[in-house]
Amino acid sequence: MSAKIISGKLLSQKLNSSLKNSIDQIKGIRAPKLTILQIGDNPASNKYIKHKLKSCKNVGIDCDHIKLDQNTTESELEKIIIDLNKNNKVDGVLVQLPLPNQINEKIIKNLIDPKKDADGFNPITLGNVLLDDTEIYPATPLGIIKLLESENINLAGANVTIIGRSNIVGKPLASILINKSATVTICNTKTKNLAKVCKNADILISAAGSANLVTKKFVNKRMTVIDVGSNFVNGKYCGDVDYDKVKKIVKYITPVPGGVGPMTIACLLENVFKLYLNNIK
Ligand code: GUN
Description:
The protein has two domains: 29-114, Rossmann fold; 138-261, NAD(P)-binding Rossmann-like Domain (Rossmann fold), CATH 3.40.50.720. The chain is 41% helix and 16% strand. It has ten helices and eleven strands. The protein has helices at residues 8-25, 43-59, 74-86, 105-111, 123-130, 139-150, 170-179, 194-199, 243-246, 260-280; strands at 4-5, 33-39, 62-68, 92-95, 159-163, 183-187, 203-206, 224-227, 231-233, 236-238, 252-253. Helix 7 (170-179) links the parallel strand 5 and strand 6. Helix 6 (139-150) crosses helix 7 (170-179) and helix 6 crosses helix 10 (260-280). The model has no long low-confidence stretch (mean pLDDT 97). It binds guanine. Residues 48, 94-97, 119, 139, 264 line the site of guanine. Guanine (GUN) is lined by residues 48, 94-97, 119, 139, 264.
């Protein structure tokens, strides 16, 4: 038996179309507006931003892309963010990561007003995620939850193992799952006996950024596997999971591409819409 494939492409299309309807219904008021700040010309960032711009356009979000020179200083970027924070016509601000070395990412994440925090990376937003007291969630963890819920996969009481302890995926995802009464184990690539720790999970989520990390040894036949990896191997885009072999064993699996990636963008757009609704109140 082969696993059921959970398509983030299809689910994100449904979410985007429902968001477009909601935006269309608010007639007479301006469109929601997102500003994306990019510093430098990182090829992966160029690709991600292209997708974000296209998706914004499709649902009716007005999106400005400000591309700054690689040598932009921290204080120059700070000034732009402070102006955007004050600009009432801008609902969401997103600073594309990674940033060049001269700019301190922590300072920038702190500076974006939580009321405009489209990515959900501000420590205040993340604190509220931990406390289960927020409307805005980082987009990738929220997308993963929506993928699981779309298949009615039980979270309460489930043993969920996450590989990856990043601030933008692993940690907020663990908080959301804990708040939904899952039993969560967070590993990383240095975890001893990683395959053994993962093997008995009901849900295995890999956000390690390491191609072919998750092999047959990591999985069982009851398992749902969510692949958050975004890797290039010999010019080919792939996740963290040895997909062809693992999908023959497990119950559910997400593909790469077409799994978590499009859900991240759909949830980002939902965040912008929520920020907009609060802003125009
Ligand atoms: N770089 C890679 N993924 C992301 C993301 O979700 N948001 C931002 N701002 N930068 C990224």
